[in-house]
């Protein structure tokens, strides 16, 4: 019993470090875009992140064979182009804190998409989470007073939608190949999806990359800390905690992103935006609590460092 408590304490400490890394990374990514275009930075973080994961797989003697190539390719495009690329574009156009909150609506979209795609109906308290998330997004978008960053907010939501679709596809793939290694399922889509990102980075017009110490540090932060280390912490926590508990703890990341952007980038949300953010955080917390119920079975998606 004492050993179990110690393991859970270590897992919670790993999750806390993970959320600090992911949460603060919103400020890191936003600041790095002063020195590189969004697709250039996204390509560097995904391609080199994939190489680091393959190195970890090699030394950990994990299975490295590519399986289900078409599905892995679509997953890679959703996760890297649809999620990471669109996310970086959103950060160019808008604030880090608001982008973090809107991107993390991913669990809300998973719940909605799981109804037609997986046959998992929305019921009971889940409807409260749906209504809270919708109202929160409406308050942030403020359709009666359209704002200059409307395009950025739409991109952030689209990024979350792509992340959600990739999670649905991951769950479908797990049903077909239940023994597929989770690290393999993370590394191959990242590598395959990074290739079109590299093409986008080469093809899209952008300012020349300025290899400043900050940009180099930001790339290393994303590749090493948000990639290899964060993925290892996530897997460590998932092995010792229920998936719902781990997911709920990860919801601290967008909160940390908002606070860090507020302090470091002077992105001060107004009253309506704060209310909308609070409603979305409530919705995501409620979804995570519902996931902890014994009757709620979930297959965790591969960690996506943000």
UniProtKB/TrEMBL annotation:
Please name the InterPro entries in this protein's record: AA-Vitamin_Transporters, EamA_dom, EmrE-like
Q: Key word Ribosomal protein present in the record?
A: no
Membrane topology, from the record:
Multi-pass membrane protein
Q: Name one Pfam family in it.
A: EamA
Name the domain of life this protein comes from: Bacteria
Q: Where is the EamA domain?
A: 13-141, 152-288
Keywords linked to the UniProt accession: Cell membrane, Membrane, Transmembrane, Transmembrane helix
Keyword Cell membrane listed: yes
Q: Membrane-spanning residues where? A: 12-29, 41-60, 72-92, 98-118, 125-144, 150-170, 182-203, 215-236, 243-263, 275-292
Q: Where in the cell is it found?
A: Cell membrane
Name listed for the protein in its UniProt record: DMT family transporter
UniProt source species: Methylophilus aquaticus
């Amino acid at each position: 019993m004492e050993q179990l408590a110690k393991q859970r304490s270590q897992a919670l400490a790993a999750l806390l470090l993970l959320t600090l890394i992911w949460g603060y990374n919103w400020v890191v990514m936003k600041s790095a875009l002063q020195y590189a275009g969004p697709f250039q930075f996204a390509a560097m973080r995904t391609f080199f992140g994939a190489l680091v994961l393959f190195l970890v797989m090699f030394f950990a003697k994990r299975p490295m064979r590519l399986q289900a190539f078409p599905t892995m390719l679509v997953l890679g495009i959703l996760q890297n182009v649809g999620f990471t690329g669109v996310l970086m574009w959103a950060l160019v156009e808008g604030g880090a804190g608001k982008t973090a909150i809107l991107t993390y609506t991913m669990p809300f979209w998973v719940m909605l998409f799981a109804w037609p795609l997986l046959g998992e109906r929305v019921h009971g308290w889940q409807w409260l989470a749906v209504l809270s998330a919708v109202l929160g997004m409406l308050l942030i978008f403020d359709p009666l007073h359209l704002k200059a960053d409307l395009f950025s907010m739409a991109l952030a939501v689209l990024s979350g939608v792509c992340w959600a679709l990739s999670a649905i596809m991951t769950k479908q793939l797990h049903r077909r190949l239940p023994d597929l290694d989770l690290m393999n399922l993370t590394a191959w889509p990242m590598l395959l999806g990074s290739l079109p990102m590299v093409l986008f980075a080469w093809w899209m017009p952008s300012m020349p990359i300025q290899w400043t110490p900050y940009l180099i540090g930001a790339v290393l932060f994303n590749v090493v800390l948000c990639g290899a280390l964060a993925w290892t912490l996530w897997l460590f926590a998932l092995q010792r905690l229920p998936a719902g508990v781990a997911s709920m703890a990860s919801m601290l990341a967008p909160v940390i992103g908002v606070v860090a952007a507020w302090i470091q980038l002077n992105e001060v949300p107004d009253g309506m935006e704060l209310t909308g953010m609070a409603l979305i955080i409530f919705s995501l917390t409620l979804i995570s609590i519902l996931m902890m119920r014994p009757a709620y079975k979930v297959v965790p998606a591969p960690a996506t460092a943000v």
